[in-house]
Amino acid sequence: MRRWLPALALLSVVSLFLGTYVGSVSLSPSDVTAGIAYGIKSTLSAFFPGIFPGERPKAFIIVWELRFPRVLLAYLVGLSLASAGVASQALFRNPLADPYIIGVSAGAGIGAALGAIYAPQHMGGLALTSALLSVFIVYSVSRVDGKVPVDTLLLAGIAYGFLASAVTSYLVITQGPRGHLTWMWLMGTFNGKGWEDVVEMFIIALLGVGFLVWKWRELNLILLGEESIALGLDLHLYRKLFIGAIALLTAFAVSTAGIIGFVGLVSPHVMRLLLGPNHRELTPASALFGGVLLVFADLLARTVAKPTELPVGIITALMGAPFFLYLLMKHKRGELYS
Q: Which residue spans adopt a coiled-coil conformation according to this UniProt entry (predicted)?
């Protein structure tokens, strides 16, 4: 971990810089650094009057108000989804578990769509409630003799995901003219997001990811299933706590940026190949890599089809679906841990 943490931290900084630097309006590297520095000083000056931000840079609005909050939000959402993926794989003792694949993201989408249409101020809470219900349904249906086999989990998750997507589609279509905007949002986008969204997602990520990083020993033990009780783990309590953390992170990621898939699958597996299965290293490393992954996915979504902006969910699906098929083949050959 000592070697990988600085590398991932540096990669995170590079991705945030590139995400802010690249866009439809050309900027120089000094424009980016000056805009971010001025924004930080301006924010601090509201709390510490002795700090003077100086003259406002010419690219300040583009950097601080448009690009940087979007990039930061993409990083935080990726951080949250990757952490939820790590916890899902440990909780279900299933290497193919992921909030998107097992239907939790689609389930949270129902609550988010209901909130967007009828109660925007309660969108996060409705998405959380819907995500918790989704975890309970998929887990209950796929559980066989106290275990969650790969086949039943995937079938239950895919079936529930289709059902949830159908309900969400109905809600969106019946909106009328507003339906197109909601549909684009549900496919995954960070367009139009601001600092309020960043602050909200930061608090959620701090609570959810922080809890999972803190409880790395329990994540290791829960992989043993019922045998972990003999080692002193309150299995039923921690199942509920981890389900709550997964639902919290997934729900607010969906309510903020729409349904973005495969980040919670790809990131943990890449880091597991590099660092091993110990959650002391795996959880924080997967979180950081998930943030980097989604920043670059959003960068591609903004630039690959200029001037049209693609939903970021399309980019993650193009990256993640082949990876998922690769993991399925490995599992079929017995080369994937279970």
A: none
- How remote is the C-alpha of 142 from its chain's centroid? 24
CB 220 within 8 A of CB 268: no
In a domain, 1, yes or no: no
CATH number of the domain bearing residue 323? 1.10.3470.10
Instruction: Give me the residues paired with residue 144 across strands.
Output: 147
The residue-averaged pLDDT of 105-127 equals 85
Do the beta carbons of residue 23 and residue 67 sit within 8 Å?
Answer: yes
Q: Tell me which of 3-7, 72-76, 261-265 is least confident.
A: 3-7
Residues 144, 289 contacting (CB under 8 angstroms):
no
Let me know if residue 144 belongs to a domain: yes
Residue 161 identity: G
Answer yes or no: is 9 within a domain. no
Counting every residue written for the chain, the total comes to: 338
Domain count, the chain: 1
Q: Backbone phi, then psi, for 28, in 5-degree steps?
A: -95, 160
pLDDT tens per residue across span 285-312: 999 999 999 999 999 999 888 888 888 9
What secondary structure letter does DSSP report for 57? P
Residue 292: domain span: 14-332
- SS3 string, 174-185, reads CCHHHHHHHHHH
Cα(253)–Cα(51) distance, rounded to whole angstroms?
34
Q: How far is CA 246 from CA 86, 150, 310, in A?
A: 9, 19, 27
**Residue range 157-181: mean pLDDT, rounded:** 82
Contact status, residue 281 vs residue 275, Cβ threshold 8 Å: yes
- Cβ atoms 280, 214 nearer than 8 A: no
Q: 249 pLDDT band (50/70/90 cuts)?
A: very high
* Res 118 pLDDT > 60: yes
Note whether residue 3 is domain-resident: no
Q: Which amino acid is at 302?
A: R
Kindly report the average pLDDT of the chain as a whole number. Answer: 86
